[in-house]
Amino acid sequence: MSEVPKISNEALKAATSVASLLPQVAAAAAGASVLGLFAGWRDATAYFSSLGASWFMTALTPSMLIQRAAGLMGLLVLFAFLSIYNLTHGAATAKGLRKYSILLVVAATVLFIVPTLAERWVGKQVVYYCSVAGAFASAISAGLTIGEVVARLVDDELAWGGYHVWLLYLAVSFGLMQAPDRMGYARAQVDGDQKTSSLPKVEVVSGAPEKAWRLVMIAGNQFLLVSLGETPHSHTFRVVDANAISEIRSSLDRP
Question: What is the pLDDT of residues 221-231, one digit of tens each?
């Protein structure tokens, strides 16, 4: 009869160490979800308000809001992790992280402001792409700022001060407030324009035949449709269920 191999003390210690990390990982995941929810809410609020359908916000679930900010949150978390990883290996410093964070904030500000002022000449689509690039730059800057906070705390022996709080405020302000807000607004400007909108056209079973309907979003069994006017104030909306739609055309079917 063979003996059951004994688990070494080292293996038990390793297992205990991993188990002790699980609550911290769960807390970090929960915190990231809350931040993603907030960023998604900012994006959706800017989008639907600019489009003229702010009332549809009540139909959005938390998971839908988090999905809207998945790209930005992914970048923020990735660069926060890379910053901390490089700090622990001596490949980065608080000063270096601060320099690149400031450069990215400046770049994001330029991408947000200049194209918007020149919209008449460059067009709404260029403004949208610049807003996306600016939002990504803001998210990366926020991730680097979080790394700087960690580095400063290490230098200050984990003693929190006003400067640390100020850094966190900047990370939240640019990465979770300004970036998704600008993205949502710019996307609404493109989707709400008859010449640039890529919202898919739909055919409804019954309704005003003289109106061309487009699908804005699906929330559960609710399909938000819009008939685009010349301005956001002249858009017409309908909320129908799946049975009221006979076909949805490709979003590549441009006017």
Answer: 889 999 998 88
